[in-house]
Design goal:
Elements: H1 2-17, H2 20-24, H3 30-41, E1 48-58, E2 64-76, E3 80-87, E4 95-98, E5 103-107, E6 110-115, H4 122-125, H5 133-140, E7 150-155, E8 158-163, E9 174-178, E10 183-189, E11 198-208, E12 211-221, E13 224-236
Helix pairs in contact: 3-5
Length: 262
Amino acid sequence: MRFYAKLSSVLLGLFTALPLMAQSGVPATGAAVLEGMRSAFGGRWYTTLTFVQKTTLRRPDGSDTVQTWYESLRHTPERGTVLRIDVAPLSAGNGSLSTWDSTYAVRGGTLAATRPTGNPFLPFIESVYLQPVERTVREVAPLKIDLAKVRADTWEGRRAWVVGAAAGDSVSPQFWVDVERQVVVRMVVESAPGRPPLDIHLLGYVRVGEGWLATKIEMYTGGVKRQGEDYTDWKAGGSLAPELFEAWAWRRGEHWSREKGN
C-alpha cells in the first residue's frame, strides 16, 4: 500500500508539472501554435503558387470596383516568401512585390515606391510551413499579436486556437487556426491609423499539393466588407523564374498567365 501511495504521489507530481498543452489540450503559447502548423506538414508544403484573383474593392461611396490580379508566390530559404501581384492588364506593367516586412510598388514596369511594411498574410499562409518557428515569430512581431494569449474557440463550426485575444475581443491583433487542418482561418490586424482594425476571413479551403489554399478572402473594417477576393486557376509546385520576383526585372521574361492568352 505504501508503494502504491508513493507511486500515486509521483504520478500526481508529474501531471501537475506537465505544460498547459498536455493538461488542457490548448497550446501554451502562440509560438507553440505556429510550431504545430509547421510540424503538421513536415516541410511538404508547396514552395510556389500561382492563381488568378477576382478582387472586389468597396469605394468610399459604397459602390464596388472589380479588378483581375495575377498572383505569384515563391518561398526560398534565402528570401523567405515573396508575393508578386500583377494588376490586369499586364501590358500596363502595374503591380507590387511584397515580403513580410516590405512592399515595392511598380507602375508602368518601373519601381515607383518602397514601403517599410509587408504583407501580413505571408508568414501565416506560406512561410510558417517551411522555416524554423523562430523565424516565423520574428516575422509576425510587427503585427503586435500577444503570443502569450492562447485559447480554444470555434470558427464556422470547427475547432480553432485563438492567439492574441480573450473571448469577446474582436479588435486586438489576433489569428485563428483550424485545429484539424492547421491553417489560419481568421486574422485581425491593424489598418490605417485612426481606423478600426482589419478583420480578415480566409474561406473556401481546398487541398493543393501537400497543403491547403483558401480560395475566398473577405476583409472587413467596422463590420463593413471592404475587399473580397475569389481565386481561380491555382497551380502549386511549378517552376517560376527568379526574375519574376525582382522589381527591376518586372517586364523581363514571359509571365505565366500569358499561357492563357493574357
